[in-house]
Design goal:
The complex is a heterodimer of chains A (about 120) and B (about 110). Chain A is mostly beta strands and about 120 residues long. Chain A has strands at about 5, 10-15, 20-25, 30-35, 45-50, 55, 70, 75-80, 90-100, 105-110, 115-120. In chain A, the strands form 2 sheets. In chain A, strands 2, 4, 5, 6, 9, 10 and 11 form a 7-stranded mixed beta sheet that branches. Chain A has a 4-stranded antiparallel beta sheet with strand order 1-3-8-7, with no helix packed on it. The relative contact order of chain A is 0.33. Chain B is mainly beta and about 110 residues long. In chain B, strands 2, 4, 5, 9, 10 and 11 form a 6-stranded mixed beta sheet that branches. A 5-stranded antiparallel beta sheet of chain B has the order 1-3-8-7-6, with no helix packed on it. In chain B, a hairpin with a 5-residue loop joins strand 9 and strand 10 (about 100). The radius of gyration of chain B is 13 Å and the shape is globular. Chain B starts with a strand and ends with a strand. The chains are: A mainly beta (about 120), B mainly beta (about 110). The interface of A and B includes residues 31, 103, 109 and 112 of A.
Chain lengths: ~120, ~110
């Protein structure tokens, strides 16, 4: 696995402001993902962040609202822009790693600790 | 749309019993299957992965995969109070994305 850290761990923000969440990995990874988990719900993929190219957004998520940067193979940021109370959620960074066990050539995905965002 | 469905919870089992969690998926081209455990207020933790039909055992956990039936399950033997959590089934198809089920909340009664 990998050590994944996120900053901040939690924040309370006012409506209309923006928050940038940072994700740092202790090894180089080609693919990083950003998820949202709303209260009592499962995980929803926001976008895939690839180093050297623009992020790929899932249906219902747009770059103006959730701009993503991926300056290198160990770091990414997600910004939640012009926030509203509906953006209150846990935001999770995730990385895909090549599995080094007996099943060769397969990838496993690991999650950071998450950022709990409350918008008032 | 790739769908992953889990048996509805919550599931309550006595300590020492077997907890059985089920998951079905819609995309027949799915290749990789995962179980994540998520404690309240924490992020998902990968506990099992399975790629071929049959059983895979890791400690008290056994994952079972039947691609013909599009079914994957997780058995937790000798359930402990520390196993109380939400268990998420995740499926990867031919692309790189994971599709997650809604999760099943397990409570182990001491």
């Amino acid at each position: 696995s990998a050590v994944i850290s996120q900053k901040p761990s939690r924040d309370i923000c006012q409506r209309g402001t923006s928050l940038t969440i940072q994700c740092q990995v202790d090894s180089q990874v080609t693919m990083m993902f950003w998820y949202r988990q709303q209260p009592g719900q499962s995980l929803t993929l926001i976008a895939t962040a690839n180093q050297g190219s623009e992020a790929t957004y899932e249906s219902g998520f747009v770059i103006d609202k959730f701009p993503i940067s991926r300056p290198n193979l160990t770091f990414s940021t997600l910004t939640v822009s012009n926030m509203s109370p509906e953006d209150s959620s846990i935001y999770l960074c995730s990385v895909r790693l090549l599995f080094t066990g007996t099943s060769k050539g397969v990838y496993e995905q690991y999650f950071g600790p998450g950022t709990r965002l409350t918008v008032t | 749309q790739k769908e992953v469905e889990q048996n509805s919870g919550p599931l309550s089992v006595p300590e020492g019993a077997i907890a059985s969690l089920n998951c079905t998926y819609s995309d027949r081209g799915s290749q990789s299957f995962f179980w994540y455990r998520q404690y309240s207020g924490k992020s998902p933790e990968l506990i099992m992965s399975i790629y071929s039909n049959g059983d895979k055992e890791d400690g008290r956990f056994t994952a079972q995969l039947n691609k013909a039936s599009q079914y994957v399950s997780l058995l937790i033997r000798d359930s402990q109070p520390s196993d109380s959590a939400t268990y998420l089934c995740a499926v990867r198809s031919n692309d790189y994305k994971l599709s997650f089920g809604a999760g099943t909340t397990v409570t182990v009664r001491a």
